[in-house]
C-alpha cells in the first residue's frame, strides 16, 4: 500500500483493501481461481482485529468482495446492507450520564409524560420500556446530563429510508432511498456498502483494445481537485491514461451546458430546482411530487458531457468518475440509458490505482483543459447558482436569480416544504444532498477537510484556461 494514502476511517481502509485485491487479481486473470483467498489475505489471523473472531471477519470480507464485484443481481438498489456485519445498534433512546448531580428539582422526571424516570441513589434512571423517546427530559435537565443516542445509519439517512427488521438489523426501503450514500459513510461497522462496477470498467478498457475497437473516455467530476492529496490533478489524469482510458475529459464542460440551459428554463418557469444532484432530484420526486414540474428538465453535467462525447465520437464508451454514489443509480435510469456506460467513485479509483500499482506521485502531469471556471465550481455548494447567474449575464437576460442555496438534505427539505406551501420567497433552489456539495460526496477519499476541499476547488477553477468549455475528441 502506498505510504502516502490517508483514510478517514478503518472502514474506508478496509473498503480500499478489498477493492484493491479484487482489481489486482482481475488484472492478472487470477480472480476466479483465487477469489476465496481474498478473505484470508485481508484477515490473515490468527487473532481477530475488528470483530469477535477471525471467522466472522472473513465472512464479512467475503460479502464485501461480492459487493466489489457488483453485488446481488436480485437487489436493484446500488446500496446494500451486509447482514452479518450489522451490529444491531440500539435504536433511538435517551441515557442518563455520569454528569447527573442527583439534584432535588427533578425537572427531568416532571417533564417526562411517560413517567419513565425514577431515582436510584439520588441519580435519575430511565426505564427503556416506558420511554417514548420524546426528548423532554433531555431538554429539561439543567446539567445536560441526559444524552440522545441514535443509530448512526438512521441518523445519517435524512430521507428516512433506514428501517429495522425483526432481528433489529438495518434494512433499506428502496422506495424511499435516494442513494445519497450517507448511511454508507456513517455506519461505524461498514455494514452498509455501495455496489462497485470496477470490474465492468476494467473489462470495458480491455475490450477496447487500446482504442482499436472503440474508445473509452473518463469523464472526471470537478471535485477531483479536492481529492488525492498526495498527487496533482494532472498526475491523476496521467494515471487514468495509464489505466487504459483513451481520453480524460472534465465533466465540468457538461456543467457549463447545464448552467446555460437552466438559466433559460428558470426565466421560462420563474421557479426552478436544480438537476445536477440525482439524490436531490429523487428526493423531490419521492417526497414532494407536487413540485416535480419545477425540477429542471435538463440532464445532469455527467449526462450532458457523455452525450456530447458520443455525439462527436459515435463509438465512444463513457465512464463517469466522481464522489457520488447516487450517480450509480442515475446512469442506469431507463430514460438515460446509453449516455453513460458505467460509474466509479474516487474511493474506487484510488483502489484501482493501488491494484494496478500505478504510483501517481511518480507520473508526469497530463493537463486537463476542457472546462471553464464556472463549470468547475459546480463541485461545491453555491457553484451552480453562480454559474446560472453568469449565464444570464452572458445572454444579456434581465432576470434576477434569488437562490435558496441548500447545503445538505435537511436544508433541502426545509426549502421544499416552504415551496410546496407557496411560502418560499426565493425562485431558485440549488439542492445538494451532501453537505458541502459534491466536495462532500459520500464516496470522497477524504471528508474531514471541508474548508480545505472548497479552497482546492476554487483554486482549481481559477486555473481554467477557457472562458467557456470546449471538447476536443480523440482523433
Intertermini distance? 36 Å
Q: What would the average pLDDT be, to the nearest integer?
A: 93
Task: Assign the structural class, choosing from mainly alpha, mainly beta, alpha/beta, alpha+beta, or little secondary structure.
Answer: alpha/beta
User: What summary fits the major beta sheet?
Assistant: 4 strands, parallel
Compute the number of helices.
Answer: 19
Number of E-type strands: 15
Shape: globular
- Quaternary assembly: single chain
Spatial arrangement of strands, main beta sheet? 10-9-12-13
Explain the overall architecture.
This protein has 475 residues and is α/β, with parallel strands linked by helices. It is globular, with a radius of gyration of 24 Å. Strand 9, helix 10 (233-243) and strand 10 form a beta-alpha-beta unit. Strands 10-9-12-13 form a four-stranded parallel sheet, sandwiched between helices. It is built from 19 helices and 15 strands. The model has no long low-confidence stretch (mean pLDDT 93). The two termini are 36 Å apart.
Give descriptors for this structure.
19 helices; 475 residues; 12% strand; 38% helix
Summarize this, please?
With 475 residues, this protein is an alpha/beta fold.
Provide the fold topology.
Blueprint: H1 10-27, H2 31-34, H3 38-42, H4 54-68, E1 79-81, E2 93-96, H5 107-111, E3 117-120, E4 123-126, H6 136-140, E5 146-149, H7 152-156, E6 162-164, E7 170-172, H8 182-186, E8 192-194, H9 198-208, E9 216-220, H10 233-243, E10 247-250, H11 252-269, E11 272-273, H12 278-287, H13 301-312, E12 317-322, H14 326-330, E13 342-345, H15 346-355, H16 373-376, H17 383-394, E14 403-407, H18 409-420, E15 428-432, H19 450-462
Parallel strand pairs: 9-10, 9-12, 11-15, 12-13, 14-15
Antiparallel strand pairs: 1-8, 2-5, 3-4, 6-7
Amino acid at each position: 500500500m502506498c505510504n502516502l494514502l490517508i483514510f478517514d476511517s478503518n472502514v474506508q481502509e478496509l473498503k480500499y483493501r478489498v477493492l484493491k485485491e479484487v482489481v489486482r487479481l482481475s488484472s492478472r486473470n487470477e480472480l476466479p481461481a483465487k477469489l476465496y483467498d481474498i478473505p484470508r489475505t485481508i484477515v490473515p489471523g490468527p487473532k481477530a482485529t475488528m470483530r469477535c473472531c477471525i471467522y466472522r471477519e472473513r465472512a464479512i470480507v467475503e460479502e464485501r468482495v461480492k459487493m466489489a464485484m457488483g453485488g446481488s443481481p436480485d437487489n436493484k438498489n446500488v446500496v446494500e446492507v451486509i447482514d452479518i456485519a450489522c451490529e444491531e445498534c440500539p435504536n433511538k433512546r435517551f441515557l442518563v450520564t455520569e454528569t447527573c448531580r442527583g439534584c432535588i428539582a427533578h425537572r427531568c422526571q416532571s417533564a417526562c409524560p411517560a413517567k419513565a424516570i425514577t431515582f436510584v441513589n439520588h441519580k435519575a434512571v430511565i426505564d427503556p420500556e416506558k420511554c417514548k423517546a420524546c426528548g423532554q427530559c433531555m431538554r429539561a435537565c439543567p446539567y445536560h446530563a441526559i444524552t440522545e443516542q441514535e443509530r448512526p445509519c438512521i441518523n445519517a439517512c435524512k430521507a428516512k429510508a433506514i428501517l429495522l427488521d425483526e432481528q433489529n438489523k438495518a434494512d433499506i426501503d428502496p422506495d424511499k432511498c435516494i442513494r445519497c450514500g450517507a448511511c454508507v459513510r456513517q455506519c461505524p461497522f461498514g455494514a452498509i456498502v455501495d455496489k462497485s462496477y470496477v470490474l465492468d470498467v476494467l473489462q470495458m478498457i480491455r475490450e477496447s483494445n487500446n482504442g482499436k475497437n472503440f474508445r473509452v473516455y473518463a469523464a472526471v467530476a470537478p471535485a477531483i481537485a479536492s481529492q488525492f492529496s498526495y498527487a496533482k490533478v494532472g498526475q491523476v489524469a496521467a494515471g487514468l491514461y495509464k489505466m487504459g482510458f483513451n481520453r480524460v475529459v472534465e465533466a465540468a464542460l457538461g456543467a457549463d451546458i447545464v448552467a446555460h440551459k437552466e438559466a433559460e428554463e428558470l426565466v421560462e418557469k420563474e421557479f426552478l430546482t436544480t438537476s445536477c444532484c440525482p439524490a436531490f432530484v429523487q428526493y423531490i420526486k419521492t417526497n414532494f411530487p407536487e413540485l416535480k414540474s419545477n425540477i429542471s428538465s435538463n440532464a445532469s453535467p455527467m449526462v450532458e458531457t457523455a452525450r456530447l462525447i458520443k455525439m462527436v465520437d459515435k463509438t465512444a464508451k463513457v465512464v463517469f468518475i466522481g464522489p457520488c454514489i447516487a450517480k450509480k443509480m442515475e446512469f442506469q435510469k431507463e430514460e438515460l440509458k446509453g449516455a453513460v456506460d458505467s460509474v466509479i467513485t474516487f474511493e474506487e479509483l484510488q483502489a484501482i490505482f493501488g491494484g494496478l500499482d500505478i504510483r501517481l506521485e511518480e507520473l508526469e502531469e497530463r493537463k486537463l483543459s476542457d472546462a471553464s471556471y464556472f463549470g468547475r465550481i459546480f463541485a461545491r455548494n453555491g457553484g451552480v447558482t453562480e454559474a446560472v447567474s453568469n449565464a444570464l449575464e452572458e445572454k444579456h437576460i434581465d432576470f434576477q436569480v434569488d437562490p435558496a442555496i441548500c447545503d445538505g438534505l435537511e436544508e433541502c427539505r426545509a426549502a421544499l416544504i416552504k415551496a410546496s406551501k407557496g411560502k418560499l420567497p426565493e425562485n431558485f433552489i440549488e439542492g445538494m444532498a451532501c453537505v458541502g456539495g459534491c466536495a462532500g460526496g459520500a464516496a470522497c477519499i477524504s471528508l474531514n477537510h471541508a474548508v480545505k476541499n472548497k479552497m482546492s476547488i476554487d483554486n482549481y477553477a481559477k486555473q481554467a484556461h477557457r472562458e467557456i468549455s470546449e471538447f476536443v475528441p480523440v482523433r
